[in-house]
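Thought: the user wants the 3D structure for the chain below. I'll pass the sequence to the structure tool as-is, report back what it returns, then summarize two notable features.
Action: structure_tool
Action Input:
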Amino acid sequence: MTITEEFYRELSDKVYWLDPKHSKYEPDLKINSEWDFAGVEFKILQIKDSLDGMQAMAAAPIVHSKLEKNFKNKKILANFRVLK
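Observation:
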């Protein structure tokens, strides 16, 4: 799975949807829920919403109905983590 700049940008934007003050706030973004991010199904593994305003999300793509944990192209995202 290759992460392009456009894909990265869309993933990073979605993390802010955890904030109730955000215009696109999504209260259904919860641990163990599955979401389509940039055309790829992901399962949310962990969510961190700090008191200092930082939102973070750990997720893994779903490939062939299983969580994908073997990435050839590993790119660490600033505020969106794809776990190995």
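Final Answer: Structure generated. Residues 5-15 form the longest helix (11 residues). The chain has one domain: 5-82.
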